[in-house]
């Protein structure tokens, strides 16, 4: 259903709160939303009611809310679900940015719908609002074995990998206009074709 023309009203970045996690791979979703806020001069502030940092502003003529849950990754739904319900934001109007183990650093994909793919943040959201939201998947690479996943996502990437992830996020930011306006297919084509320099 990627041919829809629904404009976005809520953009969520998934991650973990606190300075000790700020630069870790699991916070790639946070990085995207923080840079989006910077790009469009949207102030982000503490929102204790929803256990989050949130902001509201105009992006390409559309009223958009930004949300960074501070509940820790595996409880992201405790922030996202009541926030979306209170502001009456339909699932189809939501974009969730998150890290993706199954893609290498420098790979970024826009996807519409689907399961949670084992991602702990999505696992806590999908059962409550359904799966029909956009996902911006930011590749962080896989450490090679299941036992090493936790340490991998909660550690900082080497600068070579970080540069690749930064390039990918910047590329996605350049497609903000099409995304916000609901031109999902053109945005998807452009984002998914990205190759790092």
Average of pLDDT: 95
CATH topology: Rossmann fold
Poorly predicted runs: none
Q: CATH-wise, what's the superfamily? A: Peptidyl-tRNA hydrolase
Helix count, per DSSP? Answer: 8
Radius of gyration: 15 Å
Structural class: alpha/beta
Subunit structure: Monomer.
Keywords: Cytoplasm, Hydrolase, RNA-binding, tRNA-binding
Subcellular location: Cytoplasm
InterPro entries: Pept_tRNA_hydro, Pept_tRNA_hydro_CS, Pept_tRNA_hydro_sf
What distinguishing features does this structure have?
single chain; 197 residues; alpha/beta; seven-stranded mixed beta sheet
Describe the structure.
The protein is an alpha/beta fold and about 200 residues long. It has a single domain, classed as Rossmann fold (3-Layer(aba) Sandwich), CATH 3.40.50. Helices cover about 30% and strands about 20% of the residues. It contains eight helices and seven strands, in the order E-H-E-E-E-H-E-E-H-H-E-H-H-H-H. The chain has a seven-stranded mixed sheet. It is globular, with a radius of gyration of 15 Å. The termini are far apart. The mean pLDDT is about 95.
Question: What's this entry about, in short?
Answer:
Helices cover 32% and strands 21% of the residues. The protein has helices spanning 28-39, 77-86, 120-123, 126-129, 149-153, 159-173, 176-180, 184-192; strands spanning 10-13, 45-47, 52-59, 62-69, 94-100, 108-112, 134-139. The protein has a single domain (10-192), classed as Peptidyl-tRNA hydrolase (Rossmann fold), CATH 3.40.50.
